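ARCHIVE CARD
SHELF: 3
SLOT: left
DATA:
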Amino acid sequence: MADEQGFIVYVNKRAAAIIGTPSSELLGQDIRTALPLQESDGRSWWACTDPWKGLATRTGHREKLLIIPGRDEVLVTARYVRPGRSMPVTQVIVGLRDAEARRRAEANNSALISTIAHELRSPLTSVKGFSSTLLRRWDRFTDDQKRLMLQTIEADADRVTRLITELLDISRIDSGRLQVRKQPVDVTAAINRHIERFVASGYDRVRFDLSNGHDVALPEVWADPDRLDQILANLMENAVRHGAGTVSMSVVPIGREGDEAVAVTISDEGEGISPEQYPMIFTRFWHGRTRGGTGLGLYVVRGLVEAHGGTISVGRAAAGGAEFRFTLPAGTPEHVV
């Protein structure tokens, strides 16, 4: 904080650390000398803004990335205090924020853009190639060949749709705008539907084992059926693609009356995941031993589970593979959205 003449009258420890000078040495100095902020083109920010002699209607400046010569970039906000409208400035309050968090966010955004561009290129190239071939040489292919090409186009279009859905969900999760539209759902039936889809796509039915699905009474669960399908599809696909052996699933009631929930467990018999990686599994861009996909799926899964008021964890299955367990609160919600 500087007074009406520009001399520093207050500085906190964090600001002193960012400037790189002890608070005791900053007090009484001209803020324009003690904090020689510069624009990216080298011009003095103080000369450009001039809080004390500038427009009498200004109340400050929004956050801006500036440079402290000899140090690093810093995010700066400014507020001009006047005793009355259009009166001279009596105090200038400058807020300083380390730009490291912003650089990390920009790096994450760059990584996300790079990942998405890479993941989109392959299916779009396939869609473009097969559709162009069919348009130009339709009469040269048999019906079976045409069907195969169209099935490939459909599968790749679905892949792009899933990727776009992931991106939208990440945006909603990060901004706290993710909504779930709850209604009564049969979790066991939802798992069985996914098993049938895997079987229809060529997997052997004996590879899937759903226990406790019909011989245990389950409490009523309210959830968003589409979001539940997303959660199950991601976890089951991971177990099928990256695991090995039988994919075991169970749905069991947990908790006490009045605080009931169901726990869904999905495990495989593969190599599993090393314990030191457990804290990173539900973060962005995590990949296991076999890379593939965006590395965003489990990040979205955690966000969807938590949006329902549940929890998700990972561990080692009894058969040695990875075991994912998530919970969903049971009982009728007070407010169905």
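SLOT: right
DATA:
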Amino acid sequence: MRPRPPAMRTKRRYILARILPYGATPDQKDVYLSVVEAATSLFGDAAVGLAQPAVVFCDGGYAVIRCRRGTEKDIATALATVTAIGVCRAALRAVAVSGTIHALKRRVRPIRPLSGDGEMTIEGRCFTMYRYPRQKVDLVEKSIKHQKLLFFTEPDLEER
């Protein structure tokens, strides 16, 4: 069987989505199930069937979702409503849309914590500090009953 000529192929679009929080490594199937569930709850089974979403690539904190041309805005909207992937709390944020996977893979920028992680004390409470590019700093307080997050930027830390 010969492949279809380009004029007869279904036009596809690819959405690059970032998986938050940093360090979450969900399974590709779990990402697919969460995307389909979110899209179905927003638009219904018929619209999701026409969009034909599929997760093509999932690695390094990013996922590439394929859909039919014309439905990429609907799928990107559905991505914003994802609150959990599998059993873990996570979010998907659309970064870019393109007609090829190659163009999206050029947009992937791995985010790694910067050196300088350590302990910090604010108002008598001890926090673990995680630094990220673009001046983002996360402070995590771990206690027996709960975990508390504080979000600062590097200029905020210099003032303290």
